[in-house]
Amino acid sequence: MELSVEDTVLDRLWRELFDQPLPLIGAGPVVRSILKKEGVTDVEIDQAIKREKKLQ
Question: Are 5 and 12 in contact (CB under 8 A)?
Answer without folding.
Answer: no
